[in-house]
Specification:
By secondary structure, the protein is of the alpha+beta class. Helix content is 22%, strand content 31%. Strand 7 and strand 8 form a beta hairpin. Helix 1 runs parallel beside helix 9 and helix 7 runs parallel beside helix 8. Bound molecules: S-adenosylmethionine. The site of S-adenosylmethionine has 19 residues, from strand 17 and helix 7.
């Protein structure tokens, strides 16, 4: 659908390589995809056009070619989608934090649902019942965590996000997707850091110290946690600065220094020092108290993530006497709220701080039948599967390792809920888990946890088929 209303970029002079293109879809990076242009010599490749939206006719200049796609630069929108809008953020076109701010929220959510269906079919050959996506009520001002690279420019420290596809900083003082309570900290913290003589880390030379600013807020109770990721401890008087921040912001519960000395893209290093206060904030999740540290996993859109809980209750159908296995449990914020009388929880998690916080969460919520084991799921799960009726899986983006899928197929649980933030690995894993007929895929529910980006969350419900085991 198109209209001609609304401000459109003015049409510049076109080079010979400018083409009128019809955008038929969106890539996973949020670029418009145009089919081979009319009249092109076959076999022309589809063109990726950042900034273009499905249903639009645009003018683009071809700037390069890869193996599967050509790359185009958007010159003008000739016929705009009715779902195109002015992005609320001034740097939306360059900042790599968001890729869909120029698209109406409803269109984003509908595309994610469609994308999930197509991926299940294309990657896994699966056509399960996919429920309508649970779109978010709050599509801006939702992110409860920010990790911002730092650079010193002309003496001033700037925080920002990387330009799309690069490590070039796009400075921001404010970001409309962040929870306003952490957004409000960016400018004053950068101001204070500018007044020090601490050098920022340079990835090219590996010299300098300050790397990233980390901000976290407890959505429901407003606790704040501030962290610095640095290449070394060479930050004179950091404790004095941290003390002044604790005085200035009464909701700030702690300031943490994480050391990442290695020349790597891995954000957090293995060593952490508490500079002031305590190293975790407390929040509520599904009515339960959850501690959140600088580097522990906690879903970034709390109200949307809480919508998982009734879905997990439905999928797992826990009964007194059941043992629930929570694989990739983090600090167990998804599984603790599911427990009821007579239900045991065994969690598996390899990140030691998360395990400590999961145990703390169990204690804070008065739950005794909880055992959290430190280690790899692939090693721990096989031992526990034979005695457990219900399994919750919430792996990282790469999905399940082959030994985990094999262990599940060797001892399929009666009820299995699989939470995923990557439709492609979900499709692969569901196809393999259901291939021999022991497990049946009952339904898949997409949820929009990440408005303004192409990311999509989903939960799948599998049950052991009658007569198995
Ligand atoms: C997507 S998070 C889910 C956390 C938790 N379910 C939640 O919602 O808070 C994935 C978690 O799995 C952990 N993890 C990743 N690979 C693992 C593995 N092979 N064995 C154990 N834990 C792993 C990560 O440390 C992370 O805490």
């Amino acid at each position: 659908m198109t209209n001609s209303a609304g401000p459109l970029p003015s049409i510049p002079e076109f080079s010979e390589a400018s083409l009128a293109l019809d955008i038929r879809d969106l890539s996973l990076d949020g670029e418009g995809i145009a089919g081979p242009p009319e009249g092109s010599v076959p076999p022309a490749l589809p063109v990726l056009v950042p900034g273009a939206l499905p249903g639009e006719r645009v003018l683009a200049t071809i700037t390069g070619q890869g193996q599967r796609f050509r790359h185009g630069r958007l010159e003008a929108v000739l016929e705009a989608s009715i779902d195109r809008r002015q992005p609320p953020c001034a740097v939306a076109a360059t900042c790599g934090g968001c890729s869909l701010q120029h698209w109406a929220d409803g269109a984003q959510a509908a595309w994610k649902e469609q994308q999930l269906r197509r991926t299940l079919q294309r990657v896994g050959g699966l056509t399960p019942p996919v429920r309508p996506i649970l779109a978010a009520d709050t599509t801006f001002a939702y992110r409860n965590r920010a990790i911002l690279p730092l650079r010193r420019e002309s003496g001033r420290i700037q925080a920002g996000f990387y330009r799309r596809g690069s490590h070039e900083l796009v400075p921001v003082n404010s970001c409309p997707v962040l929870d306003p309570r952490i957004d409000a900290l960016i400018e004053p913290l950068c101001h204070d850091l500018s007044a020090t003589d601490w050098p920022t880390y340079d990835e090219a030379t590996t010299e300098g110290v300050l790397r990233h600013l980390v901000l976290r807020v407890g959505h429901h109770n407003g606790d704040l946690l501030v962290g610095l990721i640095a290449a070394s401890e060479d930050l004179p008087d950091l404790d004095l600065l941290a003390g002044s921040w604790m005085e200035r912001w009464p909701r700030l519960v702690g300031v943490v220094l994480n050391l990442q000395p290695r020349p790597t893209n891995v954000l957090f290093g293995p060593t952490e020092h508490l500079v002031a206060g305590r190293p975790w904030l407390l929040d509520r999740f599904g009515g339960f108290t959850v501690p959140v540290a600088l580097d522990t996993f906690h879903q970034v859109h709390t109200p949307q993530a809480e919508r998982l809980l009734p879905l997990l209750r439905e999928a797992l159908d826990l009964q007194p006497g059941d043992r629930l296995l929570d694989a990739y449990c983090g600090s167990a914020s998804l599984s603790l709220p599911l427990l009821g009388p007579g239900i045991d929880l065994v969690g598996f998690e390899r990140h030691r701080t998360s395990v400590e916080l999961a145990n703390l969460a169990a204690q804070l919520n008065g739950l005794e039948s909880v055992k959290i084991l430190v280690g790899a799921v692939e090693r721990l799960l096989p031992e526990w599967l034979p005695d457990s009726r219900c399994l919750l899986l919430d792996p990282p983006r790469k999905g399940l390792e082959a030994p985990v899928r094999e262990a599940i197929l060797a001892d399929p649980p009666e009820r299995l809920a699989y939470v995923s933030c990557n439709p492609a690995t979900l499709a692969r894993d569901l196809a393999q888990l259901t291939a021999d007929g022991q497990l049946t895929l009952e339904w898949v529910q997409p949820l929009d946890f990440f408005p303004q980006t192409t990311h999509c969350e989903a939960v799948a419900c599998l049950v052991r088929s009658a007569g198995q085991r």
